[in-house]
Each structure stands twice: as C-alpha cells, then as structure tokens.
Amino acid sequence: MGGERKVYSVTEVNRKARAVLEGGIGEVWVEGELSRFTVHASGHWYFTLKDEQAAVSCAMFRGDNARVAFRPKDGLKVQLLARPSLYEASGRYQLVASAMEEAGRGSLQEQFEKLKAKLGAEGLFDTARKKPLPLLPRRIGVVTSPTGAAIRDIIQVLARRFPGIGILLVPVKVQGAGAEQGIAKAIGYLNTRDDIDVMIVGRGGGSIEDLWNFNEEVVARAIAASRIPVISAVGHEIDYTIADFVADVRAPTPSAAAELAVPVKAELQEVVLRHGRRLRQALKGLLQDFRLRLNRQAQSYVFREPAQLARQYRRDLAAAEVRMADLLRFGAQQQTQRLGAAQVRLVHLLQSSVRQAHQRIDELGVAMRHRMERGAERDRQRLQRMASQLRALNPMAVLGRGYSLTRKADGTLVLSAGEVGVGDGLVTQFADGKVLSTVEGKE
User: Fold this and answer.
1) Which residue has the higher pLDDT, 67 or 184?
2) Biggest alpha carbon–alpha carbon distance for the chain
3) How far apart are the C-alpha atoms of 28 and 414, rounded to whole Å?
4) CA-CA distance, 33 to 75, in Å (whole number)?
5) CA-to-CA separations, 74 to 89, 100, 111, 319, in angstroms, rounded
6) How far is 360 from 347, CA to CA, in rounded Å?
7) Are 137 and 180 in contact, with CB atoms under 8 Å apart?
8) Which CATH number do you get for residue 61?
9) Are residues 96 and 239 in the same domain?
C-alpha cells in the first residue's frame, strides 16, 4: 500500500483492451445470421451477427463493403472475415469485418419464407378476400402493448384527426415466448363484439426477433378469420411480417394505421357543410324555377278565360259526336250491303258445290260397279282354275284309272314290297272300295 498507485484513464484502459483483442486473436472467419442490418448515411454498415446462443455487434466500413457482391439483409446467413475490436468511445466490444460472403439463409428467414409460401398457396393473401375499411367507424379496436410507443402514437393521431372517436385497447404482449397466442386471442375477442368496426393490430419497430410473433401462423389465421377489417401496423416502413400480407390493409407504422382508420373530422365536417350549402342553393334555384313556371302558366289562356275555353271544348265535343254518329250509320249501311252481297255469293257457291258433288258421286258409283264386276269375273275364273287343279290332284281320280293304294293295318302307306312281311294285314284301296288281305308269302 505504500507504493505509488498507477491510475489509468478510461480511455487508456479501453485502448489497452482494444490492443489485446486485436493483437491476441487477429482476423478470423465467423459465421452467423444478420440482424438489425443498418446502412449509415456515411455508407458504413452496422449490424448484429448471431447464432442460436450468442450475438455480437459488427461494423463494416464503406471501403470494405463496396466489394460485397450481394445485398445483405436481416435473416441472411453470412461468413465474415473480421477482427475483434473495441469501440473506445463506448467501451463496446465488436467485430470489424473486411470481407463478407453469403453462407445461406438464416433459420428465421427460412421459416418466414416457408410459412409465407404455405399461406399464399391457401389464398390468404388474395386481394379478393380483403375487406374494405369503413368510412366512419363508430369504435376502433387496438391489439398492442399497453406500454409501448405504438399505442401512444395511435391514440395521439386518432385524437387529433377525430376527437371523441371510441377506442378499445386489448392489451397483449407483443414479443417473447407465447405472445402470438395472446395476439390471436385478442383478435378473436374483438370479433365477439358488435361495437367494433375496424381494428389495428401491431407494435413499434424492432429486430426480426422482436417482430417474430407477428410471423406466427396462429396470428395470421386469426387475422384471416376476422370478420372485422384488420389494419396491420408492425414495426417501421421497411419491416414486413406475415401479418402484413394477411391483413386487409397494411400500414407502414402504427401512426399511419391510425390515419387510415379514420378521416379528419374537421375535413369531414367541412365536406358536409359544403354539400349542405350546395344542396340549399340547388333547392333555392329549383324553387325559383318552379315559381317562374307557375307564373307563366297563370298568365296563359287556360287560366285567364277558363269558361270560354270550356264552352269551346263542349262545342268541339258536340260536333265530334255528330260526326261519329254519321260515321257509325254510314258504316252500318256499308256493312249491311257487304253482308247481303256475301250471302248471295255464298248461296251461288253452295249450289255449285252441291251440283258438282252429285256429279262426282254418280261418276264414282259407275266406276265402283265396273270395278266390282271386273273383280267378280277375276275371282270366278280363279276359282275355276283352282277347282280344275284340285280335281287333277285328287288321288281318287288316279284310282279311277285302275290304280290302287295299299296300307298296313295301322294306316301306313306301303311303297315297296320290302316294307311288309309274311302275316302282315294289308288294306288295298280301289276307286270303288277297299279289300282286306294277309301276306302269305313274298317273291
């Protein structure tokens, strides 16, 4: 304790620590997933490199990053050639990269793309299923953290644009394990109410890990199943989540979501007043036009001399009645004359038709008798031919010429001597009778 104490400044300690880090390890290749990637106005890149168990801040200066052949973004898996260092001004440990190569897509990004493709194939992102926002909602539901900047921004914008608008906050966790279940339940709860016309679901900005609960399938399906139009407001303008693709409208920020949810009350009132003035002016002009038309009609002959006009109409009506009666009488006479002439023509026509019919009947009778006589003669001749053929074919006629027929006792006709045996009884048919005999022998 008696020796002189060596006291270092913070700057000196940080400088020594930096020298130890840079000299003791040197440049190494490090693999990890990009997160919180930011391009500074100077052109330098600042980001976090992480794996499943650890993370480290990184920087890559403009002269080095100009040689990178791809565009880095959050979720991308890369390999860095970097040296450990310490930023003396804040004492923050970091890696300073001199080279970067793409090593593959990070696990979170892979999950994002896989779920996006799955839900897109199911049609959850289709424009046709998206619901329009109401022009003037009665009450707005908000699903977000009760302590975050997002709810403060939403309330402030809504109060400025439409003072007095109803707001129902359903407080939820917006990051961390299990937060997605709470978000989905809150969306479902708002759909059980009948006083909510539109809802805002979201949170403020953050890393891909911070926003990840809005990339979970349970949240996406809760938004898709909502009967109430949903405005997603997750992160900043550059952040996109699965919830943004499924929602009916995507807002770049929570403040922008509030602007989309309601019109400006003062502007709406001004529109109503302007239309009211135009309507009153139109009604006033219409009333003046009707008054002028009424005055013109009042000055017309109809209103000035109504009795005279009525007498004139009565005279015209009486004259028309006389003309109509004359026309009816003349028409009746013409019809009577035409009817008489038609009756005469009809009588002549009927008489002529009857005479022609009688003549035709006589002619048909003569023709029919001729046909019947010819037919009877043909039938008589045919009958004679058939009788002659029948006589020629009659077997009895053959017997009359000296022939006979011999049958066995059972009536079978005997055609040869070989068909009978000794002792067989035979019946011989002659033209004038039959003879019974018995076979005594055969030669």
Assistant:
1) 184
2) 188
3) 135
4) 6
5) 27, 14, 13, 101
6) 20
7) no
8) 2.40.50.140
9) no
Residues 133 and 62 in one domain: no
pLDDT digits (tens, 9 = 90+) for 72-127: 998 888 999 998 888 877 778 899 999 998 875 556 777 888 999 999 999 999 99
Closest CA to 248 of 160, 376, 128: 128
User: Do the domain assignments include residue 238?
Assistant: yes
Q: Is residue 424 assigned to a domain?
A: yes
Nearest to 214 by CA among 235, 237, 238: 235
Most confident range (mean pLDDT) of 15-19, 162-166, 359-363, 430-434 is 162-166
**Residue 393 structure tokens:** 């074919």
Pick from 39, 59, 35, 32: nearest CA to 207: 35
Residue that has been written with the tokens 């009967």 in this structure: 227
- Do residues 47 and 185 share a domain? no
In contact, 248 and 211? CB cutoff 8 Å: no
What are the C-alpha distances in Å from 343 to residues 107, 167, 340? 109, 96, 5
Q: Which two three-digit tokens encode residue 294?
A: 């009424």
Residues 246-254: what's their mean pLDDT?
A: 96
Residue 65, in any domain of the structure: yes
Extended strands (E) in 107-234: 139-144, 166-171, 198-203, 230-234
Burial label, 362 (beta-carbon count in 10 A; 0-12, 13-18, 19+): exposed
Domain count, the chain: 4
Paired tokens of 142: 């908000």
Nearest to 83 by CA among 93, 73, 96: 96
Question: Could you tell me if 173 and 247 lie in one domain?
Answer: yes
Both 254 and 129 in one domain: the answer is yes
Domain interval for residue 72? 10-105
Q: Kindly report the length of the chain.
A: 443
CA pair distance 196, 134, nearest whole angstrom? 11
Q: Which of 105, 128, 149 is the last residue of a domain?
A: 105
Indicate the SS3 state at residue 425: strand
Percent of the chain with pLDDT over 70: 93
Decide if 208 contacts 35 (C-beta within 8 A).
yes
* Same domain? 54 vs 130: no
Q: Are residues 258 and 200 in the same domain?
A: yes
In-domain check, residue 5: no
Six-digit token string for 95: 């890696």
